[in-house]
């Protein structure tokens, strides 16, 4: 039985194979899985908001612009190399119907955009994504294989 390490909301973790990293309750939040296939090091962040908007952040794991660099750093502590990292993302849903959603209220969409922009700037290729819609997700990153399992209640599960 493999060890399962849970990543909470506005949290992140890095681990070496054969640990499975998981996070539940991705609505408008985005689960970002990074993986180094040679070192078999994985990282998972549960990003709540797109930007920290300040030089001092009490919880850097909460924001895309601060969580992702921190996650890469933690993965490097386990032997990962940035140039070998790949990414898979899930979440970013619009959980509630809004009659006239303003930019501010489209948090899921803004989270996905911030994550994808950061990955592009960092030169980390995005291999797969399961984002948008109006349903929640639970994800698991297998640090042995790099498989990213996305589970939903009404839509089943898929391996990315």
Q: State the secondary-structure class.
A: alpha+beta
| Count of β-strands | 10
CATH architecture: 2-Layer Sandwich
On the 0 to 100 scale, the average pLDDT is 92
The separation of the N and C termini measures 22 Å
Largest sheet: 5 strands, mixed
Q: Give, in spatial order, the strands making up the sheet with the most strands.
A: 1-3-8-9-10
Q: Whole-number radius of gyration?
A: 15 Å
Total number of distinct structural domains: 1
CATH topology: 60s Ribosomal Protein L30, Chain: A
Fraction of residues in β-strands: 35-45%
Q: pLDDT below 50 for ≥5 consecutive residues: which ranges? A: none
Order of helices and strands: EEEEEHEHEEEE
Give the SSE map.
Layout: E1 4-6, E2 12-16, E3 20-26, E4 30-36, E5 41-47, H1 64-77, E6 86-91, H2 107-122, E7 126-131, E8 137-142, E9 148-152, E10 156-159
Parallel strand pairs: 1-3, 6-7
Antiparallel strand pairs: 2-5, 3-8, 4-5, 4-6, 8-9, 9-10
């Amino acid at each position: 039985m493999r060890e399962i390490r849970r990543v909470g909301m506005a949290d992140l973790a890095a681990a070496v194979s054969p640990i499975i990293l998981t996070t539940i309750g991705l609505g408008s939040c985005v689960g970002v899985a990074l993986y180094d296939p040679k070192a078999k090091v994985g990282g998972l962040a549960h990003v709540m908001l797109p930007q920290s908007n300040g030089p001092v952040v009490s919880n850097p794991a909460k924001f895309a612009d601060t969580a992702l660099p921190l996650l890469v750093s933690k993965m490097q502590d386990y032997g990962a190399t940035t140039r070998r990292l790949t990414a898979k993302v899930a979440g970013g849903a619009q959980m509630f119907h809004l009659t006239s959603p303003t930019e501010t209220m489209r948090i899921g969409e803004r989270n996905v955009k911030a994550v994808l922009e950061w990955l592009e700037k960092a030169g980390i290729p995005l291999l797969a994504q399961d984002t948008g819609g109006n349903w929640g997700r639970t994800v698991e990153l297998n640090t042995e294989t790099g498989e990213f399992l996305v589970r939903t209640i009404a839509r089943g599960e898929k391996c990315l």
